[in-house]
Amino acid sequence: MMKTLLFNPSTIVTIDTSGKNFKKGKELSDIGCLYEHSIVIEDDLIKDILPTASVEKNKFDEIIDATGKTVLPGLVECHTHTAFAGSRADEFRQKLSGIGYEDIAKKGGGINTTVQAVRSSSFEELINLIKPRVEHFISQGITTLEIKSGYGLNFENERKLLQVINFLKEIYPIDIIPTFLGAHTYPPEYKNDHQEYVGEIINNMIPHFANQKLAEFCDGFCEATAFSINEIDEIFTSAEKHGLKLKLHTDQFNSIGGLDVALKHKAVSVDHLEVIRDEDIPKFSSSDTVAVLLPGVSFFLNHTYAPARNLIEQNAIVALATDYNPGSSHISSLSLIMSLAALKMKMTIEETISAITINAAKALCREKSIGSIEIGKKADFAVFNTSDYSDIVYSIGNNLNCLTIKDGNVIYKLKNAVE
Ligand code: NIG
Ligand code: FE
Hints:
Elements: E1 3-7, E2 11-13, E3 33-35, E4 37-42, E5 45-51, E6 62-65, E7 70-73, E8 75-77, H1 89-96, H2 101-106, H3 111-119, H4 123-139, E9 142-148, H5 155-171, E10 175-183, H6 194-211, E11 217-222, H7 229-241, E12 245-250, H8 258-264, E13 269-272, E14 290-293, H9 295-301, H10 308-313, E15 317-320, H11 334-345, H12 349-355, H13 358-362, E16 381-384, H14 390-394, E17 401-406, E18 409-413
Parallel strand pairs: 1-6, 2-7, 8-9, 9-10, 10-11, 11-12, 12-13, 13-14, 14-15
Antiparallel strand pairs: 1-4, 2-3, 4-5, 7-16, 16-17, 17-18
Helix pairs in contact: 4-5, 5-6, 6-7
N-(iminomethyl)-L-glutamic acid binds near residues 111, 221, 297 and 327.
């Protein structure tokens, strides 16, 4: 057995939940800071949290010195489209000149631009493109990372993307969670035959990918220009039957009832909610479905922000993520997302921290094992080069993480970090 000591940090931000494993309402503000404590790790688990004055350093195989630093649970990035190829810089230019995201999509661009690039990339090319992106997430202290497919949009290419994500999961020490997003948009060959494509998802892709264990979640995009509530209902029914857990992109541009379909199927999360109707917000108070907010999209598209305050006040389990993708949020910095959530959605610094740890873990059904520093949970930590956790949100666009620890092992260390 390997005994490791995470020694003498200035602050441990535990996100303690007293075993409840998520935070709602006022609980999001309570992040359980401990001072003058050290963390005892046995193999891959948190064994104890002790006053630093009482620890006997000679009892450990390894000491990780965190003097002057702030320790958080390993960060959880619960919504990304990291598995893409090509660039949409041209479309970004169009957007800067005033053309809308949905208009670009209607003309055959948008998601389908990326689909073309993915279809013409080999497995190896995709791996080489995506590896540095995963490493960038790890350098930020992210120890759990969700990645969606959704840029293949036929059997062969959705399978290729899921295989790429699963390969990355094998080669990196962090937990990478694959989500099948065949219902992202209609590919050009099914432009005029939506039912045929839905049939392909239900009868071919879902059964095969679930059977091969290529995906843990099934996601979809419920939107006026994408999939209708009936189509999402059919897709979710099939996904459930094959043992996939559910997520839904909904209420991004139009509120067309996706939220109700997701809640009916007890989806693990509903993501976006920029234009959620006021009367729908109370539906979260009695629900376990996590509201994943993506302020990077609102920033990138100059669009409305989700009503985070209202959602928190009405007891939604609110999480935050980058939505990292080439078209609507070309942003891979989770700390920038926290800053945007604070500045643009009026979340407190503490709420943003709960939203990228325990609540993001809940959005991936990992809340019992990660997302907070509680005895028995995984020894996953992000160690920040500051004694004041406010700096993570205040230092906008900077990565203050200097050490990433997964399963008790240091997997990233900033070179030349001030020790
Ligand atoms: O989460 N809303 C749909 N899907 C992505 C955007 C994907 C893209 O534009 O490539 C999103 O915003
Ligand atoms: Fe997304």
